[in-house]
Design a protein that fits this description.
Elements (H helix, E strand, L loop, with lengths): L1 H16 L5 H6 L3 H6 L4 H4 L4 E2 L2 E2 L2 H5 L3 H5 L15 H11 L11 H4 L4 H4 L8 H6 L3 H6 L35 H5 L15 H5 L22 H4 L16 E4 L2 E4 L6 H6 L30
Antiparallel strand pairs: 1-2, 3-4
């Protein structure tokens, strides 16, 4: 009896005060937990405006709630999104189609049958990485490797590089080369340089895996194996070094590596001598390389 009386009072309040009370206050009379979670959410902050002719706020998504209140909260008189179907997702696209989501229907995610609700929760905040890892567990695992972008540290997320709504296979946030996306953060690697390194100009992914690697600096393999995929080994590596003391700068010093010194020196890290692998404006002092040794 008390419940019936309460609902009757709420219906009367709805009829009289609906235009006066703020939406979240009216909806919060029943949905207090949802209203509290939505208090500072973006959909509520833009409520005084209209986007593309559509009202925003609670009614912007759920429709006019007057009849819903009059009929004692009957869900049949309001859009509930309970089934989370593709038709329900169209309510999102009514507004978001004019905010860079116009490619959604041609995207890879849409082709796989995903809807807005598979990645987004409207009433609670979500971490983009948590949404992505639901399907992309292999990529999430790569980010646990020693060398990785600071995604798990919270300094960036998957959507820093990817647009999940884009109509491209890789869904990268660039309309050009992969390099153009990398250069938005790594501007010092862009150049142009007088002495260029051809694979750097072609594609950063030839040497780097952005999701994470065991090798340092996101390299796909450790040095010198990565470099040896394109370059021949220095002939010096096969030379035999003299045993015993070696004169260096007028001073005799003991050779700690013996006859294998040349091999050790030229088969460790190529960047020990060629540090400017992304390009340089200064000629190297090497005759065979005609200044292109990327040493300075």
């Amino acid at each position: 009896m008390k419940a019936t009386r309460l609902l009757a009072i709420m219906a009367l309040v709805a009829a009289v005060a609906w235009p006066v009370l703020a939406e979240e206050e009216m909806c919060g009379m029943c949905h207090d937990d949802v209203a509290a979670a939505m208090a500072n959410q973006i959909h509520m902050r833009i409520k005084p405006f209209e986007v593309g002719g559509h009202a925003v706020g609670c009614q912007g998504c759920h429709g006019d709630g007057t009849k819903h209140m009059e009929e004692e909260g009957d869900p049949a008189f309001i859009r509930t999104f309970a089934d989370r179907t593709a038709e329900d997702a169209e309510a999102c696209l009514e507004c978001h189609q004019i905010k860079d989501q116009n490619e959604w229907h041609a995207s890879v995610h849409a082709a796989e049958g995903l809807t807005c609700f598979d990645c987004h929760t409207i009433h609670t905040a979500t971490n983009p990485r948590e949404s992505c890892r639901t399907c992309h567990a292999d990529v999430s695992s790569q980010m646990q490797l020693p060398s990785h972008h600071p995604v798990r540290e919270g300094k960036m997320s998957c959507v820093s590089c990817h647009d999940p709504h884009a109509a491209t296979e890789s869904q990268l946030r660039t309309q050009g080369r992969v390099n153009d996306l990398c250069y938005t953060c790594h501007q010092d690697k862009e150049g142009p340089f007088i002495f260029e390194h051809e694979p750097v100009e072609e594609n950063c992914l030839l040497c780097h895996d952005p999701h994470g690697t065991v090798a340092n600096n996101l390299l796909t393999a450790n040095e010198p194996m990565l470099c040896l995929q394109c370059h021949e080994l220095h002939f010096h590596a096969g030379l035999v070094s003299p045993e015993g003391p070696v004169e260096v700068g007028g001073t005799e010093r003991e050779n700690p590596f013996g006859t294998h010194s040349m091999n050790v020196a030229f088969t460790t890290r190529c960047t020990q001598c060629h540090p400017k692998v992304h390009g340089s404006d200064l000629p190297s002092q090497t005759v065979p390389g005609r200044g292109r040794g990327l040493t300075r």
